Amino acid sequence: MRQEFTRSAAWRRRKLQWVEEELSWYFAPQIRCVGGCQRAWSLASGDLHLCSYDSLGAEAHDDLIPLCVSCHTDLHMIMERDVRLRQMDLRDASFSALAMIQSTPKSLKRPN
Ligand SMILES: [Zn+2]
Ligand SMILES: [Zn+2]
Q1: SS3 at position 18
Q2: What is the pTM of this model?
Q3: Over 60: is that where the pLDDT of 109 sits?
Q4: Distance from the CA of 52 to the center of ligand 1, in angstroms?
Q5: Is 38 left (phi over 0), alpha (psi -120 to 50) or beta?
Q6: Which of 49, 55, 75, 97 has minimal CB crowding within 10 Å?
């Protein structure tokens, strides 16, 4: 079900809208991966991690997190492996896992 949603037109629209919001609200010339690697991020090259599946297609801006594919993979790996995170709701687990990958030394990260 989640898989179907992420491929849906509503999700595609929300992603495009999110990018517009991010660029216009924060006047950022370039969106970057927030996973700690600081790689330049775009819809084409990166992912948007969803912190909530409650409002499909109308997610709050802050419930979408721009991550490169490598950091996104790390995030999900941590969320799956960490027993403590598995007991949290998706948003809390996401931000806890995000804090962990942000503090991971870059040298330990796989090259993209
Ligand atoms: Zn994700
Ligand atoms: Zn990254």
Answers
A1: helix
A2: 0.84
A3: no
A4: 10
A5: left
A6: 55
